């Protein structure tokens, strides 16, 4: 059609061009030239009149100017006398006439004015603008071009509209473009067929397609297929995404597309489209076929609805069953613990308890499966300690393994991050399922968990966890089937070993939720290995292992590990190496005794001995007895047993050795190592109990919430309250505190006043607002280092009940507990106590020595607790001093204030008023924003911190050689304060 339109337009242009050049059409340029000649002749006539009057040619200048003003095409008019001198000029004529020739042109016209006698009197010269089209353009069209362009566009549009209208009305059947027999054949097909031209216009559609779209097939001809209301599901899609459009564009087939048609009741259609190619290979159109999937979609929706109904029913039933099952199990345990039962009754109730536990496990699996099918199984990510989670998980499974005589252990290399971000509960569930299965199907040997770290990127770690056993194995053709619901490797095993067959199915789904996959490898009769990968986040903030945060570990020494199981031996050795100790291994008692004797003969008896109780004859108890009796181990002997059997525990107590249950948890091993590096806590090879702390008479068993952003002060306050029998919950800021208060109730809240985001005053105000709705009033006590006059009044005005100044002293803390939790009987005691708090910042002079007695009293004489506090103090105070120096260097007054405030709260605990005063001065400097004296005050604070460090050395040495609290390096410390260091 476009070619026809272009041909007709070209023919029209040729006719117009010929008419223009033969003079049939008027020439606008000729009319313009006639106007210019008329201007020239008008001035010449005026000059002729003046010549008959006998006037000079200059008298015609005013007339020439008037004519020039009325003629925009005129540039200038000039009049020359008989001598050729210019006597009249309308302006710039000399310049405009510079290119003039002797002959007249469209831009330079002239006329001679004679006298009465016929002699020359004057000559009129008119300079004009060039014509719009001149020269060759005059013959190519000239000023006719706009007319030609208008005619071309208008004619093309009119012709295109006309032809399109005519072509649409052409009946292809009558024109015999598509034979009737072809149309009849296409109409017999159950799938829709559409033939499209290269513009996407429907040239032919069969009856099946017409029924699918709800329009008669004949009425679809001439319409664009993309104009129909297509969608992808419930979302409309653009025309470029239609498969036939892609075919026409790329000349390549498009198959497997599923589109929705929103016309009428709505349809779901499967679309395949192929190009129609010309002889030269160009795409001339497209053929599209449509299969109606609506019945299939309806059937699938019905099945999914039924499945959801089944899952919801199963979830509800499982939940309803769990409630009475918990009651059955709880009452069974109470009766068993009562003690007034016959042997037969106890046996029967034991069977009831075991059966109830097994039934509850099946119910839990069914509930998890129903959640999976209902799409409500989600993860709850949070920071967790990987090693602690796996240690605790295996401890819960240890009894089942050790009852069957199996070795159970875990190996996590040092390159695996301690702290990860993920759902620890779901990870534990997967491990319990895999290890539980391994224990169930293993009769002898070992079950071991191995963790390896794979590809790591910024903030993400991919773990590979393997559970390896020496059990019965799985046939190769059943390795995939075991992950299907209600399926075990052998149908007979479900009766022999029990179980619902859901554990691996749920585990596989959990692993997929954690971004990994699960698979199994096995050899019948030799054991199995179940592997799964999982993706976890790695926290951006760097901190130590959560499970070891309460232990201060220093550089260790040599350790002897006597263990006959090589897998467990390697795991223990790796764990010791990561805790900075140097392990030596032995496989039996004779080789272990030889190593101990060699070390004792060399004058360096080993400080720690780890002995497996089940060593080959002679067993580990004999080795431990020999080591203790002959003093072959300098400090600690630890017996490792597979169960906490009463006879084993009693034998350890008799021998005077420590006892750990296998698999050994890292936190338990760290506690033993801590005793090994601090022999002052040991007597005869066993720990000396900490001094018993008897609190003064007063309230006990309170639920206390401690809100404190400083980790050191958190430990101090929590340890004191826990020693007196109170339940303590610690939060790091006000927002966490409000969340804790919304979840449960507390009898008392201690809150720091200066915290990030929300201060203690703002927290107290928020709590009081929440109590306005009828909630019972909870006492609030402030923890503050600002024990100045007026602080108590400020706290009371903010809605608090009392306050305790830092450092927190036992008598002050217990006095406020009596005042707030139990109304005081005597007002004199309250007044005296508060007076002590208002004045407790007036202490010993700044140059006083380190008061170890006062510091020990503040932890109830417990050196173990003090060691933990000192470890935290070293880490946090050094961090804050680095932040303080950086803030001073950057001129950050707020940073100086915040860091100094944190240091002040920590050093006050050690009764060093010099350090406290230096920190307070820096805090005031930061508050005022005048940092001129900050550097000297920082150096003063560093000297005071060095004194504290020297005093704390007997409780816990600094973390590393050359490390000094408060200084950037050793040379600075020796220069500033060599005497104390």
TrEMBL record:
Modified residues (4-aspartylphosphate): 612, 752
Domain Histidine kinase positions: 316-538
Single GO molecular function: phosphorelay sensor kinase activity
Residue positions where Phosphohistidine is found in the record: 901
The protein's name in its UniProt record: Sensory/regulatory protein RpfC
Organism: Urbifossiella limnaea
PROSITE patterns, per database record: HIS_KIN, HPT, PAS, RESPONSE_REGULATORY
Domain Response regulatory: 558-677, 703-821
PANTHER family to which the protein is assigned, alphabetical: HISTIDINE KINASE (PTHR45339:SF5), HYBRID SIGNAL TRANSDUCTION HISTIDINE KINASE J (PTHR45339)
Keywords: ATP-binding, Kinase, Nucleotide-binding, Phosphoprotein, Signal, Transferase, Two-component regulatory system
Principal EC category: transferase
Gene Ontology CC terms, in alphabetical order: plasma membrane
Domain of life: Bacteria
Subunit structure: At low DSF concentrations, interacts with RpfF.
Catalytic activity: ATP + protein L-histidine = ADP + protein N-phospho-L-histidine
Domain PAS positions: 178-223
Pfam families according to UniProt: HATPase_c (PF02518), HisKA (PF00512), Hpt (PF01627), PAS_4 (PF08448), Response_reg (PF00072)
Enzyme Commission designation: 2.7.13.3
């Amino acid at each position: 059609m476009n070619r026809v339109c272009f041909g007709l337009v070209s023919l029209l242009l040729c006719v117009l061009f010929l008419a223009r050049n033969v003079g049939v059409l008027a020439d606008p340029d000729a009319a313009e030239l006639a106007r210019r000649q008329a201007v020239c002749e008008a001035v010449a006539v005026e000059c002729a009149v003046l010549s008959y009057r006998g006037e000079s040619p200059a008298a015609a200048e005013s007339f020439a100017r008037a004519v020039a003003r009325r003629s925009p095409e005129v540039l200038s008019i000039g009049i020359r006398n008989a001598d050729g001198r210019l006597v009249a000029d309308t302006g710039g004529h000399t310049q405009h006439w510079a290119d003039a020739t002797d002959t007249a042109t469209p831009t330079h016209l002239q006329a001679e004015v004679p006298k009465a006698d016929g002699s020359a009197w004057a000559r009129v010269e008119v300079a004009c603008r060039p014509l719009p089209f001149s020269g060759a353009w005059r013959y190519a069209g000239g000023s006719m071009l706009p007319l030609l362009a208008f005619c071309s566009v208008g004619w093309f549009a009119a012709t295109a509209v006309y032809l399109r209208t005519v072509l649409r009305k052409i009946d292809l059947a009558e024109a015999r473009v598509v034979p009737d027999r072809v149309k009849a054949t296409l109409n017999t097909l159950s799938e829709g067929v559409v033939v499209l031209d290269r513009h996407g216009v429907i040239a032919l559609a069969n009856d099946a397609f017409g029924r699918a779209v709800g329009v008669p097939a004949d009425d679809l001809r001439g319409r664009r297929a993309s104009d129909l209301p297509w969608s992808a599901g419930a979302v409309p899609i653009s025309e470029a995404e239609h498969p036939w459009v892609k075919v026409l564009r790329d000349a390549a087939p498009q198959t497997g597309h599923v589109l929705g048609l929103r016309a009428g009741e709505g349809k779901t259609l499967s679309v395949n489209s192929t190009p129609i190619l010309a002889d030269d290979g160009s795409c001339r159109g497209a053929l599209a076929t449509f299969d109606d999937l609506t019945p299939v979609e309806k059937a699938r929706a019905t099945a999914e609805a039924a499945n959801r109904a089944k899952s919801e029913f199963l979830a509800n039933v499982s939940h309803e069953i769990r409630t009475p099952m918990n009651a059955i199990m709880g009452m069974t345990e109470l009766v068993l613990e009562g003690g007034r039962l016959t042997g037969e009754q106890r046996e029967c109730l034991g069977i009831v308890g075991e059966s109830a536990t097994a039934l509850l496990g099946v119910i839990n699996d069914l509930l998890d499966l129903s959640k999976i099918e209902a799409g409500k199984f989600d993860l709850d990510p949070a920071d967790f300690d990987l090693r602690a989670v796996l240690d605790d998980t295996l401890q819960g499974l240890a009894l089942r393994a050790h009852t069957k005589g199996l070795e159970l252990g875990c190996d996590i290399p040092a390159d695996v991050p301690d702290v990860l971000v993920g759902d620890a509960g779901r990870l534990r569930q997967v491990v319990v399922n895999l290890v539980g299965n391994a224990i169930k199907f293993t009769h002898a040997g070992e079950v071991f968990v191995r963790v390896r770290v794979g590809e790591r990127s910024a903030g993400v770690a991919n773990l590979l966890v393997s559970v390896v056993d020496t059990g019965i194995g799985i046939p190769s053709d059943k390795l995939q089937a075991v992950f299907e619901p209600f399926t075990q490797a052998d149908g007979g095993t479900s009766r022999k070993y029990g179980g619902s067959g859901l554990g691996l199915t749920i585990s596989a789904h959990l692993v997929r939720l954690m971004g990994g996959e699960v698979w199994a490898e096995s050899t019948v009769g030799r054991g199995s290995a179940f592997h799964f990968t999982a993706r976890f986040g790695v926290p951006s903030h760097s901190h130590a292992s959560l499970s070891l945060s309460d232990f201060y570990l220093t550089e260790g020494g040599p350790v002897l590990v006597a263990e006959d199981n090589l897998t467990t031996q390697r795991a223990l050795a790796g764990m010791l190496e990561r805790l900075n100790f140097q392990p030596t291994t032995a496989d039996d008692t004779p080789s272990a005794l030889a190593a101990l004797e060699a070390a004792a003969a060399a004058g360096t008896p080993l400080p720690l001995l780890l002995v497996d109780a089940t060593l080959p004859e002679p067993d580990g108890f004999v080795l431990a007895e020999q080591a203790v009796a002959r003093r072959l181990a300098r400090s600690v002997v630890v017996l490792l047993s597979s169960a906490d059997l009463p006879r084993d525990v009693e034998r350890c107590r008799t021998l005077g050795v420590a006892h750990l249950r296998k698999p050994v948890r890292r936190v338990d091993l760290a506690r033993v190592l801590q005793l090994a590096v601090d022999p002052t806590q040991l007597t005869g090879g066993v720990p000396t109990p900490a001094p018993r702390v008897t609190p003064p008479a007063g309230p006990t068993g309170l639920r206390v919430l401690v809100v404190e952003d400083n980790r050191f002060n958190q430990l101090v306050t929590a340890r004191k309250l826990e020693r007196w029998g109170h339940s303590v919950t610690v939060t790091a800021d006000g927002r966490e505190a409000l969340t804790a208060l919304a979840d449960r109730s507390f009898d008392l809240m201690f809150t720091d006043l200066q915290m990030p985001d929300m201060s203690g005053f703002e927290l107290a105000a928020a709590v009081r607002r929440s109590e306005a709705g009828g909630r019972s009033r909870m006492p609030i006590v402030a923890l503050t280092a600002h024990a100045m006059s007026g602080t108590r009044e400020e706290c009371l005005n903010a809605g608090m009940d009392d306050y305790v100044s830092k450092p927190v002293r036992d008598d002050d803390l217990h006095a406020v507990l009596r005042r707030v939790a139990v109304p005081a009987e005597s007002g004199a005691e309250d007044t005296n106590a508060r007076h002590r708090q208002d004045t407790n910042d007036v202490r010993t002079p700044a140059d006083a020595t380190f008061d170890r007695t006062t510091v020990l009293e503040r932890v109830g004489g417990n050196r173990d607790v003090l060691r933990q506090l000192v470890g935290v103090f070293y880490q946090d105070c050094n961090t804050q001093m680095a932040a303080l120096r950086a803030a001073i260097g950057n001129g950050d007054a707020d940073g100086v204030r915040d860091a100094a405030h944190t240091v002040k709260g920590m050093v006050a605990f050690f009764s060093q008023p010099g350090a406290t005063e230096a920190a307070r001065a820096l805090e005031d400097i930061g508050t005022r924003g005048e940092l001129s004296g900050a550097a000297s005050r920082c150096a003063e604070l560093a000297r005071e911190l060095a004194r504290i460090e020297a005093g704390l050395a007997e409780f816990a040495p600094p973390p590393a050689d050359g490390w000094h609290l408060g200084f950037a390096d050793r040379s600075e410390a020796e220069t500033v304060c060599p005497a104390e260091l």
